[in-house]
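Appendix B, Record 12. Input sequence as logged:
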Amino acid sequence: MSDVTTTDIAGASEVRDWITLLKPRVLTLVVYTGIIGLLVAPGTMHPVLAVTAILCITVAAGAAGAMNMWYDRDIDSVMRRTIKRPIPTGRISADGALTYGVLLAVGSVVLMALATNWLAAGVLAFSIFFYVVIYTMWLKRRTPQNIVIGGAAGAFPPLIGWIAVTGSIEALPLVLFAIIFMWTPPHFWALSLWAHQDYERAGVPMLPVTHGARETRKQVVIYTVLLVPLTLVPWLMGFNTWVYGAVAALLGANFLRHAWLTWRDEQDEAGVSLTKDMPAKRCFKYSISYLFLLFGALALDRLLLA
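Logged structural output:
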């Protein structure tokens, strides 16, 4: 006979809700790029301190996610993608989520300072501030350029990982920051093309809502065209070998192909039903794999071949 009780099930469900507040799917990319920044940085770091630094980046990003959910609880309650989140459903109170986020944010910054250096802690604190205040509270509901400027929030992890090791800001981590910054618009706008009705319902001025699907698809192409040459800069700087350059070029060519197919597809125009396998959705999914593979190639080439 099972020993699992209703209380146990409820407790497990509550734990899952608190974890959901951290936006675990987003955290995967944050942790990964933070690790890459730490691995490619010159110098050595004790494994325990390295793990602590990555933990701090993870917790800080989760804290920002929790505070984002606290502030966006009104629009989350009307969007299909977010209506089942813990705060809109009442499973977690707004005040509880805010307290949770603030405590995790403060704890992660203090621990980063103690385990690594104050510069890494300062940039970590600024990344939280940027995502919560600059993006969530200021830009998101005011301008269709919200994701362009706000994309900086997700670009900090490799920079922070590098600074945790070196204690300084140098050219290469700034290039990694710029790559993620330029990657964010085509990544997120591809998503918004097949989720634009949610944003329209919530009154969020995402580009497809304010300027239409055609302009959004054009911007996906433009930013992808700008992104691909930027990914070759680590090789041109001599930080990586031609192997990374070749991988970056091939991955970029495929990203350009997805962006072009998205541009050519017009089923997102008004009055046309969207299919689950529309090019914009495929472009969004590929953009995730693209960044994982690109940063993985950069690290492997640097650590094994350089």
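Residues 23 and 96 are 16 Å apart (CA to CA).
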